[in-house]
Specification:
Layout: E1 5-11, H1 14-23, E2 29-36, E3 47-49, H2 57-66, E4 71-74, H3 77-81, H4 84-89, E5 95-96, H5 100-107, H6 109-119, E6 126-129, H7 132-138, E7 144-149, E8 158-160, H8 164-175, E9 187-191, E10 196-204, E11 209-211, E12 216-217, E13 220-222, E14 226-229, E15 234-237, H9 240-263, E16 270-278, E17 282-288, H10 295-299, H11 307-315, E18 330-338, E19 346-350, E20 352-353, E21 360-364, E22 367-370, E23 373-378, E24 380-388, H12 391-401, E25 405-406, E26 410-411
Parallel strand pairs: 1-2, 1-4, 2-3, 4-5
Antiparallel strand pairs: 6-9, 7-8, 7-9, 10-11, 10-16, 12-15, 13-14, 15-18, 16-17, 18-24, 18-26, 19-23, 20-25, 21-24, 22-23
Helix pairs in contact: 5-6
Length: 426
């Protein structure tokens, strides 16, 4: 990277707003296009929204050539699973993200479990089945209480069941009601583990794997981890629990991945999201092959290093020359959602954000500009991130900023990061 570069960020959520916000801070960033972007990306310096269909790979390719774009950063999982990186790289366009085969770690839960088993990464006992009848047979076993849709399900295809009856209901929703379409043609049935969950993002250039800052997500919709699973109601970082188990995670999770990369058992470039559960030892619950949401919004305000330099190194096989430096501050991210989320969303409701917010960053997720006015456009609408030297102060900064934001039907959890050492998996 010898000159300032033009970047194309694909996506329209809070993750993409945070990525644009951080990339724009790099002295090597000339200009960013965000496709399609949201109301937040529209207001950032150096950033322009781009109204194109990111699943039309030929159109994306043409824009990259015409502009020209120096680096594409893929946010969401769907274009990765459909092979956008393969298409762009075939035309010599530099892309941060895995090819379709690498993204298989996310778009096929069965593939991911088999990979973990083959390389010796601790994970829950499992079986893969492809029908309601076979699922009913497996869930008669007392251990079989977690059912995961094999394909992509927008974070809603995991059922953690209390008993056989709940598992039966989940199986019928997948196979009989076809709630997830073809993504539910196959399921992974897992042992139900107990422990504390962590989210760890790791940058990868195909050879080197560099962990970022661990965070802890709050997936349940309501306080005290009640209600349905969501895409995430908030998160915080750093996490004391990770520090206590860092050595074990390095030895039992990260090193086997590094070994698989070295031996050619895994071909991967981009960012690997590692969903961990800590009990007597670390277990991997899942892999995602893109930046997590809201984890990205939580950790990027704590990153002191140049994000653009790090992502470029991943595409250049030079990540070993990059050292990530993190602030000693703490971060608390609270998601403001539609009151009917996750079953529903909010569209077209006017959003008012006061200009007097201090000690907090507001990232937009489900927003857009309509006739010059900011309105809601999704289930998760905004992310309010408080940053301060102590976690208690970061929590206060986030929650103190929320009264300065208004839209009809606004809801949020009031206990994000209240337990800063553990967020039990339920």
């Amino acid at each position: 990277m010898k000159k300032p570069v033009k970047i194309l960020v694909l996506g329209n959520g809070g993750r993409e707003n945070a990525l644009c916000w951080k990339l724009a801070q790099s002295p090597m960033c000339k200009e960013i296009y965000c496709a399609p972007g949201n109301g937040g990306t529209a207001s950032l310096d150096k950033v322009k929204n781009l109204d194109i269909d990111i699943l039309d790979f030929n159109l994306v390719n043409k824009f990259c050539k015409d502009e020209p774009i120096d680096l594409v950063v893929v946010g969401p999982e769907l274009p990765l699973s459909q092979g956008i990186v393969d298409v762009l790289e075939a035309d010599d366009i530099r892309v941060f993200g895995p090819d379709r085969q690498g993204a298989c770690l996310e778009w096929s839960k069965a593939y991911a479990k088999e990979f973990m088993e083959n390389v010796g990464i601790p994970s829950a006992k499992f079986e893969v089945v492809d029908s309601l009848t076979k699922t009913e047979a497996v869930i008669k076993n007392h251990w079989a209480r977690v059912i995961k849709v094999d394909g992509l399900a927008a974070g809603k295809g995991v059922f953690v069941c209390a008993d056989e009856k709940e598992a039966q209901e989940a199986a019928e929703k997948i196979f009989k009601q076809r709630a997830f379409g073809d993504a539910g043609n196959k399921v992974v049935i897992e042992e139900k583990l107990s422990g504390d969950e962590l989210s760890l993002l790791a940058l990868c250039d195909g050879t080197n794997l560099v962990p970022m800052l661990a965070s802890q997500d709050h997936k349940r919709r309501f306080e005290n981890d009640r209600g349905p699973n969501t895409g995430g109601m908030g998160a915080y970082a750093p996490v004391e629990l990770y520090k206590r188990h860092e050595k074990a995670i390095e030895e039992q999770v990260l090193n086997p991945i590094r070994k698989a990369l070295k031996e050619g058992k895994l071909v991967f470039k981009g960012v690997l999201f590692i969903g961990l559960l800590i009990s007597d030892k670390p277990h991997v619950l899942e892999f995602n092959t893109r930046f997590g949401d809201p984890e990205t919004q939580t950790i990027l305000p704590l990153l002191k290093s140049d994000l653009l330099e790090a992502l470029w190194a991943c595409t250049d096989k030079s990540l070993d020359k990059v050292k990530l430096e993190w602030s000693n501050n703490s971060s608390c991210c609270v998601c403001l959602v539609a009151d009917n989320y996750p079953e529903g969303s909010s569209k077209g409701q006017r959003i008012e954000i006061s200009s007097d917010i201090e000690d907090a960053v507001v990232f937009h997720a489900g927003t857009k500009l309509a006739d010059g006015k900011l309105v809601t456009n999704g289930g998760r609408v905004l992310n309010v991130v408080g940053v301060a030297p102590a976690m208690s102060e970061a929590i206060a900064a986030a929650y103190n900023a929320i009264p300065s934001i208004k839209f009809n039907g606004m809801a949020y959890r009031r206990d994000i990061a209240r337990r800063t050492s553990a967020c039990p998996s339920v």
